[in-house]
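Bench notes, afternoon.
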Amino acid sequence: MSSPRVNTQRSSRRPEERLLDDVDLDLVAALQLAPRTPVNALAEILDSSPSTIARRLARLRTERLLRVGGRLDWPLITTENPRQVWIKCEPGRSQEVARRILELADEVQTLLVTTGSADIYCSVYPLLGTDIFDLLTNRLPGIPGIVSTESHLVLRAHTMGQTWRLHRLDQAQTDRLREHAVQVSQERRASLEELSDLERRTLELMVANGRIPAADIARELGVSRSTAYRTSQTLLECGALQPRVEIEPALLGFPLNALLSLTVLPQAIPCLLETLAGHPSARYVSMVAGSSSVIHYGVFRDEEDLARFITTDLGAFPEVTTVNTCVGVRVLRRHWTARDGVRLGERVDGFLSPLRFPPPPPLTASPTG
């Protein structure tokens, strides 16, 4: 009796991919390049009509498939570099532990339930006022069901999630979109103390809506439109906030999340980081201090795509001595936004608290001591 033949060809697209058509995908690709591009310009570049583009944007937002938010410059809300944390759980308790972590820690920016050497992966950002030592040694390990945790300090981040792109537009379209992209041209703000109250309130609005127009900012904050425009442009041009498209890669045909922890010969780390940062799968590439040297968080079309990455792309670096791969089976939070499959959930507002409640000025000694 002959063995059954395994069909390695996918007979149909994954169900989540059918939620978007070509017009939607072009629109997503355009927004990833220049999230604040006006509707009329998007329509012209994508050879569509403004009414069609506006209608598609509204549908994607209403159905919770896409959201344009804002990424704050880390020095504004954090005290030090983030950690990447790997958690092992008691059998059958991964989902329960993951929920408890999300309830406990606003500092958790991203969390995936995984398979492999760890059961949960999360990235942790030490927000202003956070005791990171207590979080990593007491609060997280103390959650019932956790067997062990291992944290890696991020030394250098070469690729961030908002830089990942869906490549489907031609060069002419890309060039025209880049004319609408935000250019950081002013000195970067180093701390909240350098921001006015108006700037902090404007930042909060732009984090929630990265495409918010000056007229809406003016109406919300009770200032003139010209003041709102100048304030928002200043924040964008100094890099205090970067518009960011929130959409699950699975919706775009990349359902496989993989976290690869690499041990690398020290002299080869810089070259490897640069190479991985340019790879189309790369969402977060970092050099870390821990049991690994480099962590590559990538999204892939399928298992064969991941296999080629490991054997061919990583295989081109003999200095990579070990590869430990964890596969994400469920994304519960990404960039402080809950995920329900491919649909976006509620945003965690805890990371915005420094904007609302800036730290008090340092105490100074009186002349009399």
